């Protein structure tokens, strides 16, 4: 089992999202906790680098997370509009 933390800025952005997107974000956080950083079942999932990943929660909403190799810590550092995504 992994430990998932969400940055405060990501929480603020996801709080402004539609309810359906917030529910999907909760599902993603649960999947990250149970199955780790590789989430191939999520739409548009892809690695962004050595330890960084992202997926789409909806057409214009994305989540990005970081997991140091051999660590149980996963940090969601961005959740919000794909136009403002840090990649």
Tell me what the structure shows.
The chain is α+β, with helices and mostly antiparallel strands. The protein has one domain (3-82): 2-Layer Sandwich (YaeB-like fold). The chain contains two helices and five strands; from the N terminus they run E-H-H-E-E-E-E. The chain has helices at 8-15, 19-35, and strands at residues 3-6, 46-47, 52-58, 61-66, 73-81. It has a five-stranded mixed beta sheet. Strand 4 (61-66) and strand 5 form a beta hairpin. The radius of gyration is 12 Å and the shape is globular. The chain starts with a strand and ends in a 6-residue tail after the last strand. 24% of the residues are buried. The mean pLDDT is 95.
């Amino acid at each position: 089992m992994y430990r998932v933390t969400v940055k405060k800025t990501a929480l603020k952005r996801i709080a402004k999202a539609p309810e359906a997107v917030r529910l999907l974000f909760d599902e993603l956080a649960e999947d990250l906790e149970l199955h780790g950083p590789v989430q191939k079942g999520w739409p548009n999932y892809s690695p962004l680098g050595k330890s960084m990943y992202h997926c789409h929660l909806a057409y214009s909403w994305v989540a990005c997370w970081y997991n140091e190799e051999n660590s149980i810590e996963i940090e969601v550092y961005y959740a919000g509009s794909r136009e403002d995504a840090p990649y």
